[in-house]
Amino acid sequence: VELNGSFNTTGFQNYAGPITLLGDTSLNPTQLSIGGSVTGNDHNLTLSQTSGAISLSGSTISSVDQFVVATDSSIGGSITAASVDFQGNVRLTGNAAVVAAGAPGPISFGGTVVGGFDLSANGSTVTFSGAVGGTTSLGNLTTVGSTAAYVTAPITTTGSQTYNGQLVLNNSVTANASQFDALGGIDGGGGYNLAVTAGTSTLAGVSNVGDLSVTGSTSLDGTIATSGNQSYSGGVTLLGNATVTATNLSVGGVVDGDGKTLTVTPAAGQIGINGLAATNLTELTVTGDAAIAGSITTIGGNQAYQGNVTLGGATELGGTAATFASSIEGAGNDLTINFTQTSTVDGFNSIHNFTSLGAVELNGS
Asked: How far is CA 1 from the centre of its chain?
C-alpha cells in the first residue's frame, strides 16, 4: 500500500504487507500493527494509538526522515530514519537495530526499554530516559561507532554492554551485565555516581564522576578521575599508562601493570589507599598527599610518594625501591618496608614500630 497524509480510525489498523510513503504520513488508530516493510522515501512517519502498544515486531523500516512513535510500542527488526523518537515504553520482541542516519541524527527512548533480545543503536546520540532491562533484562546492548549514550536509570543486560562512543550520566546509574565496555570514555555529567557489576569491565577514560564502583575484574586505560571514591572488587589490568584521581582508592584484587605505570593523585586534600597489590608495574607514583594502610606491594616496580604520607593503620610497603619526598607521619602505627633495592626515607614521626627488611638510606629525624 502507498500512503500519504493522516489516517485516523476508531478501530484497528493492520498492515501485513509493504508500505511505501508518498508523503509525510500519520497513522492514528485504536490499535496499530505493522508486520511488513516500510519504505519512507525521506518522508516523516508518526505512529500513535489510543490502546495498548503499537506492534512493529518483525518489520523493517527504512529511509524515513523523522520517525516518531508517540505511544508504547513493541519492536523487533531494523529501523532506519534520519531521527528516531520513541516517546513511550518499548518492548523488544526480537533483536532490534535502530539507526538514525541523518548526518547522523538522534535516537531517543523516552520510556523504559525491556525484552530479552539484543538492541543496537547507531546515531549521533542515543538517550535512554527510563530504565533499560528493568522488568525483563535485555540480551546485549551496543552503541555503534561514535554514538554517545545518555543514561538516566539502571541498565541491566544478561549479555554485554558495549559503548563504543562516550557514555554520559544524566543521573546516578547502576549497570549490570556479563561484560561492560565503555570504550569511548565516561562523563559523569557533573558528579553523578556509577556502579558497575559485571564479569569483566573496560574503562577507557572517566571524568566528572562522583563515586565509581566496579564489581568484577577491570581493565583501565587513560585517566580515571572521580571527585569521590573508586572501588574495584576484583583484579585490575592496565591497558596503558593510567592516572587515577579519587578521594579513596580500594582494589580488592591484584593490579597487573603489564609493564605500564600507575599514577595516583588526590581529588582534593589527600587520597586514601587501603592496601594495593601490583605486579608487572613499572612504577606507582602518588603525586599528592596520601593516607596509606595495609600492604602496598609493587612486584618488579618502584614506588614514589611525592607528597606527605600519613599512615592510617599498620602498613607494609614492598617492591623494587621507594622514594619519599617528605617525612612520614606514623600516627602511632607500625611501618614495614621491604624493597629489593635501596630505598630513601627522609624522616618520620610518631611511628610505633619501624622495620626495614632491605637496604635503606635515612635522612632527617
From this structure: 44
Q: With the C-alpha atoms ordered 344, 346, 347, 351, is the resulting torsion angle positive or negative?
A: negative
Which band of pLDDT confidence, cut at 50, 70 and 90, is reported for residue 42? very high
| Reported confidence tier of residue 103, pLDDT bands at 50, 70, 90 | confident
Residue 190 neighbours by CB distance under 10 Å: 11
Cell numbers found for residue 271: 587520597
CA distances from 349 to 48, 297, 309, 331, 339 (A): 73, 22, 11, 8, 21
In this prediction, residue 286 has a pLDDT band, given cuts at 50, 70 and 90, of very high
DSSP letters, 65-85, are: EEEEE-S-EEEEEEEEEEEEE
Across the chain, what does the average pLDDT equal?
96
The number of CA neighbours under 13 Å toward the Cβ of 17 is 4
- Please, how many CA atoms are within 13 Å of residue 157, restricted to the half-sphere of its CB? 23
For 10-41, how does the pLDDT look when each residue is reduced to its tens digit (9 = 90+)? 999 999 999 999 999 999 999 999 999 999 99
The residue type at 70 = A
pLDDT digits (tens, 9 = 90+) for 213-224: 999 999 999 999
Nearest to 27 by CA among 40, 43, 12, 42: 12
Kindly state the average pLDDT of the residues 194-221.
Answer: 98
pLDDT band at 365 (very low <50, low <70, confident <90, very high): confident
Q: Work out the average pLDDT over 293-309.
A: 93
DSSP string, 16-69: -S-EEEEEEEEEE-SEEEE-SEEE-TT--EEE--SSS-EEEEEEEEEEEEEEEE
In DSSP terms, 224 is beta-bridged to: 206, 244
Contact (CB, 8 A) for 337 and 319: no
Q: Which three cell numbers stand for residue 257?
A: 601493570
Sign of torsion, CA 170 108 80 105?
negative
Neighbours of 52 (CB within 10 A): 14
Contact between 123 and 84 (Cβ < 8 Å): yes
